[in-house]
Amino acid sequence: MRVHKQGKLTILWGEKANCMERDHWQGSLHTEVVNKEPFVSFARQADFSSLVSVLQVHGTQIVKVESNDPLLFEQWFGTQADGLITSASGIGLMIRTADCLPLVLYDPVKEAVALVHAGWRGTVDQIVIKTLNLFKTDYGSSVSDIQVWFGPCALSCCYQVDQKFLDALSTVFLYDAVVKRGKSWYFDIPRYNAALLKKEGVPAAQLYYEYNQCTICNEIYCSYRRESGTESRNVTVVSLK
Ligand SMILES: [Zn+2]
Fold first, then answer.
1. Is the pTM of this model over 0.90?
2. I need a surface site. Which of 19, 86, 89, 127 has the fewest CB within 10 A?
């Protein structure tokens, strides 16, 4: 696990060694999950006393978490959504990925943070823009203050896509996020999201890639592609002090 601490923000980047299995996130109760590993260890590394997540569906819904009510946590755990946002301290937001991109957006001025699950579908459907808009409307953020960390995901060194994928992409094609090598096409998820963020006014210097390793060619991560449909997930958790 890698730990990023900055001001009030903590990001925990989980790996295969502390992955989450399907049994832990499908059909389980929130309380059953958060009292188990890896979250007991995760909580020791950060400043959260409670943890909340959602039922990820490759959509663009984002849950706003401003309450410490355990009943709401239980409800959100079964809510179909792919992002979480908060300005409350002591609450861990959690997302699970295996090749999809975990994205952290942070406003150090308004002290709000979001964690987003962006696979190719969420990326193309622009969940990242929806998240930016929430910062503006609900927290009064200026886009120029937003900092963004890209987590481990499938990168264009390995993430081969087919013609069907390219056809689906064609209506919202952006910049050079599709890379051609030989006769094959590869999708660059971070580059596509970065292009959207920059277009909205997030400064390029505030997009951080130090944790953006390829999950397919780095075996320390769970990878849906490399492990042929694995049900293990890398976990990312963010919290505010
Ligand atoms: Zn790779």
1. yes
2. 89
